[in-house]
Amino acid sequence: MIELYYWPTPNGHKITLFLEESGIDYRIHPVDISAGDQFKPEFLAFSPNNRMPAIIDTAPADGGEPITVFESGAILVYLAEKTGQFLPSDVRGRKTVLEWLFWQVGGLGPMAGQNHHFAQYAPEKLPYAIDRYVRETNRLYGVLDHRLAKVPFLGGEHYSIADMASYPWVVPWKRQLQNIEEFPHLKRWFDHIAERPATIRAYEKAQPYSSRPAVTEEGKKLLFGQTAASLGKV
């Protein structure tokens, strides 16, 4: 059983995509990030960066004590290795999937996240910041489109954890002020993943939490106002 600590953000969706595809038994523990659940001591005990998702594997492959994993990219690699799915075993295929996984973790996610922040949440609309991150998101969409002009999936011929990592960050393309129609290869890939039964199930699992009220001003302080000094005071 995988105990999944989750909220319906792009990083949270990555993990439900994998779990639904692989068929592993799992249970969702909601972590309402706008209510400060990510700062509860019991969560920080195994997710020290006070971010979700995180997992507890109650039945690890070595038969030992439960294993905790935080950070979405690390979780995807852990689950892929545990199940032998969605990460090639050959050195070249594995290398390529991991390249694109880390591309998402280091590029698409952070840049699109800043896009969301300055365009949607910042109390002051800063044209320079909005333009900077909208343009960088656009560039990264172009990187995806060029890659997907050559191969069906980011890792090559087969669906992998690299696709699961990137897809949820393209879902809010309208919020990112992008036009997916300008990227035909990306759109083909996007539509294909959207139609996968496991993707449909994963996003259905999000519905009970996605319908919660919008982030409040107090919630924004919790999400965006943290410093090293404040971590122990929440």
UniProtKB/TrEMBL annotation:
Species in which this protein is naturally found: Pseudomonas knackmussii (strain DSM 6978 / CCUG 54928 / LMG 23759 / B13)
InterPro entries hit by this protein: Glutathione-S-Trfase_C-like (IPR010987), Glutathione-S-Trfase_C_sf (IPR036282), Glutathione_S-Trfase (IPR040079), Glutathione_S-Trfase_N (IPR004045), GST_C (IPR004046), Thioredoxin-like_sf (IPR036249)
Highest taxon above the source species: Bacteria
CDD domains associated with the record: GST_C_YfcG_like, GST_N_Ure2p_like
Chain coiled-coil ranges: none
Gene3D superfamilies with a match to the protein in the record: 1.20.1050.10, Glutaredoxin
Domain GST N-terminal residue range list: 1-87
Xref: Pfam families: GST_C, GST_N
Protein name in UniProt: Putative disulfide bond reductase yfcG
Domain GST C-terminal: 90-212
PROSITE patterns xref list: GST_CTER, GST_NTER
Protein family membership: Belongs to the GST superfamily.
